[in-house]
């Protein structure tokens, strides 16, 4: 059924279809009976609960950042069975992102290319939505959805001041999310990946750790890394993470590598720059997870992201050392049953 619907939806602009589909789901979920039927059909019945970072996840399958940038669809995504959802990337000030079109499908490769550019409503509006979400979630007697806050810097903020943007997002979101992910690895904001260098990264993360320690209830802080880092750069990130007691890593973001794609060169040239996600990044991501896990003897928890389409893919990530998994492109290609199907294999 979903394959038929997907073939129709894929006829239209990818970003417009994304919002159309989620707005349609939101509309139907306003009817409590319909929302209940959706939840009954897609929520895993025997999901393995996972406790990590001091948080209890009702299942280990989450939705990666970039899907619900502005915390608009949390109730709907919870009905689809996700154990956690990472909102964002959120920046201090609203920004429109890059020019459209900026999201492209590569069906032959089961992949996407995006150059969104941290388009989001800004921290103030997102915080208001999270306040409403948390009030409703508190009234629910069941185990609630875990929310992660993925934070970044505004495009106009120079790199030397990036730490201030990350700090202001962290402070504003702190009461309203369960954990944080620092995003310095998107390829779609000019110069952002330069912040993955050890000195720049240390300034951002050390400031966040200081802010965190000053709160009544410190929250887990993770770093999202690019799959295009060299071994030396990965070693620097790992050393820094261990040195400042970072809670974990998200591995990995999208890649700028275009090798081994089936999609023809002419199509790729017409699409242009952007981060590649989906099946082409699966092995690269898994290899990095395995390397980090081995190098740290499992001391640094990892959320796996990259090319997860089914339970077998998730099992590979966990065998490499991941504690949790995130889907994004796989959700687009596999449809709303993806969480339930993954959980069947990772009991």
- The CATH architecture can be given as Alpha-Beta Barrel
Low-confidence stretches: none
Counting helices, strands and paired strands, the structural category is alpha/beta
CATH homologous superfamily annotation: Aldolase class I
Most strands sheet: 8 strands, parallel, barrel
Per CATH, what is the topology? Answer: TIM Barrel
Mean pLDDT: 96
| Helix content class | 40-55%
Ends apart, CA distance between termini: 26 Å
β-strand percent reads 15-25%
Total count of strands: 13
Textual characterization of the structure:
This protein is α/β, with parallel strands linked by helices. The chain has one domain (2-345): TIM Barrel (Alpha-Beta Barrel). 41% of the residues lie in helices and 16% in strands. The strands form 3 sheets. Strands 3-4-7-8-9-10-12-13 form an 8-stranded parallel barrel, surrounded by 5 helices. A 3-stranded antiparallel beta sheet has the order 5-6-11, with no helix packed on it. The chain has a two-stranded antiparallel ribbon with strand order 1-2. α4 (74-79) links the parallel β3 and β4. α10 runs parallel beside α11 (311-320).
Describe the secondary structure blueprint for this structure.
Blueprint: H1 2-9, H2 14-29, H3 32-42, E1 50-52, E2 55-57, E3 61-63, H4 74-79, E4 84-90, E5 103-106, E6 111-114, H5 123-138, E7 146-151, H6 162-173, E8 179-183, H7 198-213, E9 221-225, H8 231-243, E10 248-251, H9 265-271, E11 275-278, H10 282-296, E12 302-305, H11 311-320, E13 324-327, H12 329-334, H13 338-345
Helix pairs in contact: 6-7, 10-11, 11-13
